[in-house]
Amino acid sequence: MRTTAEALLKELTEAHSVPGYEDEVRDVFVRELGDHGELSADGNGSVICDAGGEGPRVMVAGHMDEVGFMVQNITTTGFLQFVALGGWWTHSLLSQRVEVKTRSGRKIVGVVCSLPPHFLSEAQRNQVLGIEQMFIDVGAESRGQAMREFGISLGDPIAPVSAFTPMAREDWFMAKAFDNRVGMAGAIQCGQRTAGESRGNRLLLAGTVQEEVGLRGARSAAVLAKPDAVVVLEGPPADDTPGFPLSDCQGRLGGGVQIRYFDSSAIGNPRFAQLAEQVARDEGIPYQVTVRRKGGTDAGSFHLANEGIPCVVLGTPARYIHSHNAIIDVNDYLHMVVLATALVRRLDADAVGSLTRYW
């Protein structure tokens, strides 16, 4: 089955798949790529589609998880206490809708709450609340009702609720989880675009787990798949909003695909990043070069795996990631897919070998 970019992004962003519970996104990956290669999974749940071909093992990977939460406790009066799965700025949480996914698969909607401002002192109103001070109201009157009638258990995953929404500006969309459903959609569409082609490599498409809690899934995925080079697809933060100097912007919506050279998790293989730039220029693909002081991607685990794997990170910049409502220009996403696909077609034995030919 082949789904259009917009429909695929809608389905993936609206999926409930927080770290450790990536089943809904994995199901889409399997459905979309099951006819294009041999599927396998590692013990942590990362999924690989071996699309075949002869030559070096070239992987295109995105992580399946989104930032979310887990039920930590249920009070006697039926409110949920929770822990974060991934990085959240708590200012963005209050009054936001979430869904608890129970063990039966039922989804229970709730809202993140704290004490009303009427009951707070002036000092309390001006402080940033910790997650341990918040709770989720699912409408239960007691712990017993929350557990027995609603089916909620400790350890159940909680995801933000936010519909995939077209904006007034053409080609701009708002949704949760563009980090990293743009990467997952990109890996899927790259596999579909190259299906049946004669390539100078063996193509592996991957969806990794638990990136948002420490780049964990990439470690075991690398052991299973043994790639010789990895193209990591991501949904990195944009920096084109108030508070950033526009002269220093490296992630502007509409500016094209990002090519990342550095972040706190990895120094990108410079030859790989330069090859990506060259391919973008050759193909007329708009791109932005990015050097980040903070943040990280699965390249942080992939580049250290096995005997060391050269990686390049391509991204679709998104405003307000790690919140309920992020924004992308879908053209940046399409440019990312085109560049990833063009790179795959270039990565034959000589090109991959050149990435680690040090003398």
Automatic annotation (TrEMBL):
Entry-linked InterPro entries: Peptidase_M42, Peptidase_M42_aminopept, Peptidase_M42_dom2
EC number of this enzyme: 3.2.1.4
Binding site for Zn(2+) 2: D179, E212, H322
Binding site for Zn(2+) 1: H63, D179, E234
Record-linked Pfam families: Peptidase_M42
Active site residues per record: E211
MF terms in GO: aminopeptidase activity; cellulase activity; metal ion binding
Family membership noted in the UniProt record: Belongs to the peptidase M42 family.
Protein name, entry field: Endoglucanase
Record SUPFAM superfamilies: Aminopeptidase/glucanase lid domain, Zn-dependent exopeptidases
Needed co-factor(s): a divalent metal cation
Keyword Hydrolase: yes
GO biological process: proteolysis
